[in-house]
Amino acid sequence: MGPMDKNTSLADQLRESIEESIATGTLPPGAPLDEIELARQYNVSRTPVREALLQLAATGMVDM
Known about the structure:
The structure is a single chain. The chain is about 60% helix and about 0% strand. It has helices at about 10-25, 35-40, 45-60. The radius of gyration is 11 Å and the shape is globular.
């Protein structure tokens, strides 16, 4: 994840990063996405991770 854009929320930045990981195959289809592990990986709390996953679920990119 790059430097924080003042106009983009942390959850949006995480969503973009997770989307990129899915698109590039870093996170393969069907791989479980663990909130705690993602929070640790991105050095954030679980709240923005949860928000990012909800955004991805709303687009159909992940299943909750």
